Prior knowledge:
By secondary structure, the chain is α+β, with helices and mostly antiparallel strands. It is built from seven helices and 13 strands. A hairpin with a 3-residue loop joins β10 and β11.
Amino acid sequence: MGFDPGLTIGQVVTNDDIRNIFKCGNMGGMRRSNTTNTLIIVTDHTKGLYDDRWEDDILHYTGMGKNGDQKIDFAQNRTLNESDTNGVDVFLFEVVKEREYTYLGPIALWDKPYQEVQPGEDGEMRKVWIFPVKVKNSEEVSLLSRDLVEQNFFEKSKKAKRLSTSEVKERAEQTGTTYVGSRKSLVTTYERNVYVTEYAKRRAKGICELCEEPAPFANKLGEPYLETHHIVWLANGGEDTIENTVALCPNCHRKMHIVDSEKDIEKLKQIIKM
């Protein structure tokens, strides 16, 4: 029988709690404990270095090593890679709000690790190892997914609003991707890029990009209320990029989802090109 941390799925704990329960270190995304024979994996969305992402209920987790090409036989990369046979129990925590660690339970490798290119802490592009892992209690975790996605988007939005428009555009172009992360919940929930959303609203300057009328009201912060819309819907394979995202008044947004006329689509495409 493996190690039982005595936690329930969805329970929020502190960094110190993790250290005390698992007898591991209190830093890093991969924390090995010889005392409990466990490996703790933390996917932290509040830190911008690693590009961890969900594809349905599979987490594609970036391995250990901040600069230079990562090595699969280095430290905890090796532990995770061999976790099917080395007897080490692996547990996952997710962070969408600083210092709050949500317990998602034990995980296992779902497929073979693979390599992709990501920037390091020094800004230089390098090869990293990606580990596809799946939570063993996927049905319980799916009930949390929508809340985690929405809270993650809310927390990142607050940070994005503090940036200049040029900084928002730069980050949107760097992180905007043809792939859109998704997580299984009661319905499929897409993980939108907060910088793409913020830039679309700033580009519109409070004016609906379809009807060209001012936003109908302001939000609680006094900002013109517009909603972002993907010209080619994410559900239809659309990209979460500034070239496919517009800011619309609620009425036009609803119109696009009900009517979605070719004439309106073409108008929005032309606005993006301007």
